[in-house]
Amino acid sequence: MxxxxxxxxxxxxxxxxxxxxxxxxxxLAAFRTPLDFLPRMEVPQITVATSFPGLPAADIRxxxxxxxEDALSGLGGLKRIRSYSRDGSSLIQLTLDxxxxxxxxxxxxxxxxxxxxxxxxxxxxxPLVLPVDPGEEPVLLLGVFTREGRxxxxxxxxxxxxxxxxxxxxxxxxxxxxxxxxxxxxxxKVDQSCLGRTGQSLSDLADAVGAMxxxxxxxxxxxxxxxYIIKTDGRRESWEELADIVLPPNGESGTVRIRxxxxxxxxxxxxxxxxxxxxxxxxxxxVRRNRGFSPVSLSKNIRSRLPAxxxxxxxxxxxxxxxxxxxxxxxxxxxxxxxxxxxAAAAFFIxxxxxxxxxxxxxxxxxxxxxxxxxxxxxxxxDITLNIMSLGGLTLGIGMxxxxxxxxxxxxxxxxxxxxxxxxxxxxxxxxxSTLGSTLTSVVVFLPLLFLPGLLGELFSDMAWAIxxxxxxxxxxxxxxxxxxxxxxxxxxxxxxxxVAAPYLRRMLRWVLRRPAAGFCAAAALLAAxxxxxxxxxxxxxxxxxxxxxxxxxxxxSGTRVEHLFDTAEDLLGFLESRPGILFVTVxxxxxxxxxYFLADPERRTERMDVMVFTDSxxxxxxxxxxxxxENRISERYGVSLDIRYPPDLLSRVMSLNEGxxxxxVPSDEPALAVLTARGLIEHVGGDSDIHLIPxxxxxxxxxxxxxxxxxxxxxxxxxxxxxxxxxxxxxVVSAFEESGRRIPIRVRMREEDRRNRSALMGIxxxxxxxxxxxxxxxxxxxxxxx
Length: 787
Hints:
The protein is an alpha+beta fold. It is built from 26 helices and 23 strands.
C-alpha cells in the first residue's frame, strides 16, 4: 500500500485526471441509467387465457380448464399450476422455479397448447400465452373525451384506429389496450310475429343479409393487352337500402323484404366497459411498457406526443392523462436523493465539528460524491437500473463512505508534516491496512445477499452490489484522493488540534471506566426503554408510498348488467365530487373479453367497478373515512360489497402481498360443495364483513331442456336450434357497411320486446322440415338453475 500511495503522490496530475474521468463516467451513467421502481427481474410465471363466449363457468372448467391443465402439467420446471374458470373464459397460471428461462418456457407452453387446442371445442378461441411481468402493469391511463356535439362512436373509432396507432409508435410502448365507449352498428331488429307469418326463419333472414351485402371475386377478363379483374359487388350505397333486401322465396308467402318483418336502425352497441371521470364519459387507453424500458422515460415520451395529437384532433376529441404510475417512481427516487443530500450535509457539519478545520471537512466531504459517481459507473456497466433497492444501497452506504477518509485524514493531520511524500505515504499506509480489513468486513456482511435464491435474490442483489461498490470506491478514495488533496493543503492548516467534542468524550470515557457497574446499568436501562417502545410501533411489510389516492372496488352480484354499473357510477361520481378535499375521481367498470389483460387477471370480472379517488395532500381522507362515507349510501342502496384501500405498490404485487389480507382456497371436486364449505367457514368465524367469497354468488341461469320426441317428430336437431336461439337473443354479425372509411357491423337479432322475458324466448319460431312454424316452447322446456 505504501508503494501505491507514493505512486499517487508522485504523479498528481495523472491521479487527478483519473479521478476526473471516474467522476465524468459517473455523471454520464447517472443521466443514462434508467429509473425504475423495482430491479429488473423475470418473474417465473406464465398465464394461459382462453375465451369461450357464452359458456358457463362449470362447463368452462370441464371442457377447457381441465384439458389444458392436463396438457400443461408436463411443462419442464413447473412448480405449481392453478386455474380459474369463469363464465366465458378460462385462466391458468403456471408458476415455475426461479431461474427458469422464461422465453424457452413460454415457447414450450405454446407448443403444448398448439397440440391441446385440437381437442378443445371448436367454438373455443385459441389460448393466449402471456408471460407475467410486474412491469406490464399499465404505466399510464389516458382518457379520450368527446368534444361537445361530436359523435361518440366516431371518437371510439378514432381512438381504436388512429390514436392507438400513433401512440403505439412511441418509443418504449409495449402494448396499448382500448376500452370503454361504444361503437356504432347497424341493427336489423326482427319482429318475431311478422317473421313467423311469412314462413321464414331468423337464420334465413341473417343468411340473406350476409349474402346480398357483399362483393365476390368473379375471375378475370383478358381484353387485348390488358387483364381486368372481375368482381360482383352487391354492397348497398346507404345503410337504409338494407331494408330492400328480398328474402328467398318460401312456399306461397310471396315476395318478402326486410322492411316487411324488421326495422333497420343505426345505433350504438351495448356497453361492455366504460370510463367515467370529472370530464364525463370517455374511452380508456391503458399504456404498458416494453420489458426493461424505464416507465419514467415512457411517460415523458407519451406526454411529449400528446400535444400534437390533441392539436390534430382538437375538433373531435381531447386526450388527458388520468393516471401516471411513473409519478410514484419519480417521487420515490426524489425522496431518496433528498435523503442522501441531507445525509451528506449532516456528515459535513459533523466533520467540521470534530475536525475543527473547514478545509479538512471539505477534503473528507469530497469522498462522498466521488464514491457515489464511481458506484454509478459500475452499476451502469452491470446494467443495473436506479430503483428503490440500488438507491437504498447508496443511501445506506453514504454514512459509511466517509469512514475510511476520516480516519486516514485524522492520521495525516497528526503524523504528517510539511509536504514530505514519504511521511504522507507512511501515515496513509498505517491506516489503510486497518481500513482494508474493516471495509472487507462490511462487504462480507452484505455479500451473501448476492446469493439469496428466488425472489429475494432478485430484489436485494441490486442493493448488495450498490453497497459493495460504494465501499470499494470509498477505500480507493481514502487511499489515493485524500492524501493527494492533503499534500496541497496550506501549512497553517496542518497543526493537529483536537476537535471541540474531544474533551467531552474524554470525560465520558473516564467516568464509564471508573464506574463500570453504573455504565452497564445505564446501557441496560437504555436497551430496556427501547424494547418497551417496540409494541407501540405499527408493523407493515411496506409503508404505503402513495397517500393521495384511494381505491374503491365495488363487486356487484353475478349477472349484473353493465348498464346498471354505469348508472351507479354516475351517481357515485357526482356524490364524491361534491366532497371537500377530493380533487379528481375516475371510475372504470365492466370489461372486454377481447382484452387479454382482462382475461389474465383472476380478480377482474364484468360485474366489478373500480373507483380511483385522488385527494388533496392536506386532506384527512383515509380508507376508513371513505368507507364510513360510502357504506350506507352504496352497500345498502345497491347491494354491493366494498373494498376500500390504498393502492398496493409494485413490490407488494410482485411478492403476492395483499396488504394484510389472506386468501384461503377451499378445494373440492364439486364446485357446489366447495361453495357450501366456504360459506360454512364464514359462518363459523362469525360472518365478518371483511371476508369475501369468490365467486361471491351463483350466477342465475336458464337452461333449455330439449324434448327429444318433439324434435324427432318435426325433423329437427339440437345444434341448429341452439344457434337460432343465440342469434335471436344475442344477435349475429352477418356483414359490414362501409361509410366514410369506417366499417360498421350489421347485426341481426330479435327486437327488444321479443327478447325481454321468458315468454318471448319460448315464443321464438322455428321452421320444421316441412317449412311449418313451430314455437320453441313446443320443443324445449325452460328450467331455472344456478351456475
